[in-house]
Amino acid sequence: MAEREKMLEVDHIRVEFGKKRHPFVAVDDVSFAIYKGETFGLVGESGSGKTTIGRAIIRANPLAAGEIRLDGQRISGRLTPAEDRQVTRDVQMIFQDPMDSLNERAKVGYIVAEGLYAPGRHYTEEQRREMVNKALSDVGLLPEFASRFPHEFSGGQRQRIGIARALILDPKFIVADEPISALDVSIRAQVLNLLARLQKERGLTYLFIAHDLSVVRFICDRIAVIHKGRIVELAESEQLFAHPLHPYTKALLSAIPQPDPIAERNKKLLVYDPACHHYEVDKPQWTEVEPGHFILANAPELDVYRRELQR
Ligand SMILES: Nc1ncnc2c1ncn2[C@@H]1O[C@H](COP(=O)(O)OP(=O)(O)OP(=O)(O)O)[C@@H](O)[C@H]1O
Ligand SMILES: [Mg+2]
């Protein structure tokens, strides 16, 4: 297979909160790369550090260690004003709750246009209006909506407003942080289809954050599983579902409801116990256990996982 081009590289990053001397480590030694045009899933339970990673990528969380690169250029740490403008343009985020993330007192037109008012960007009133109209129609909303307020819209429409806002500067890379979790089940597919269409038309690359593996299974090319601030396993989606290795991944998979009622009734729910690892002596390392399949494991565990893959 031809070498794929990397869009985003997250390289040994660490994010800390709280006191400098006794920080809470929310993200610890996390590394992954996302290829151009790919949808990359990041899955883990509440509080595992998914949003923290997304916010580190959009530069809302500073890094305590490591580096993030977009298209080979460092985007973490200190940037020049020109670099800063470019990254703000190239990297955008879509949020979980369209209710919380939209400014209730601003009209939709302003919310969508906000990125156009940043320092160093010079658009005429007329250009801004045209760009807002285009962004709205790209996400399936009417240009007239620009003069209304967010509370006049349904959840699905509000999420479309959030997407229009992210798209207006024509980004390359989008962090979609649980973009459908807060929506009614009946409109989730519409928003997913919209994201897929936009990706195809514009060659976008996505980091798609979710709680639950079943959501990402069919939309992500590859999936990383995160537990307590560390990624424990990463593989192509099919491979992760067919041959999960890490006990935490297995536990997440066992929690997915089965469509077959008999299988559902007989299934065993696996519980993950971090004490199963015995990392006191032999520390775990991030290792490629087979091509494209990475796992956090120590040497004895790797032996077990390799044998498991040979079976
Ligand atoms: N600004 C902050 N200050 C202090 N602690 C924070 C901050 N942001 C996140 N945390 C902590 O970091 C950890 C990871 O939080 P994060 O929001 O990244 O989790 P998440 O995986 O996105 O969870 P959820 O699925 O609930 O959205 C949590 O323990 C959280 O309390
Ligand atoms: Mg989150």
Short précis:
The chain has one domain: P-loop containing nucleotide triphosphate hydrolases (Rossmann fold). Helix 5 crosses helix 6.
Give a description of the structure.
The protein has 311 residues and is of the alpha/beta class. Helices cover 35% and strands 24% of the residues. The protein contains twelve helices and twelve strands. The chain has an eight-stranded mixed sheet with strand order 6-7-8-3-9-10-12-11, with helices on both faces. Strands 2-1-4-5 form a four-stranded antiparallel sheet, covered by helices on one side. A hairpin with a 2-residue loop joins strand 9 and strand 10 (230-236). The model has no long low-confidence stretch (mean pLDDT 93). The structure holds adenosine-5'-triphosphate (ATP) and magnesium ion.
Supply the key terms:
311 residues, alpha/beta, Rossmann fold, eight-stranded mixed sheet, four-stranded antiparallel sheet, 12 helices, 12 strands, binds adenosine-5'-triphosphate, binds magnesium ion
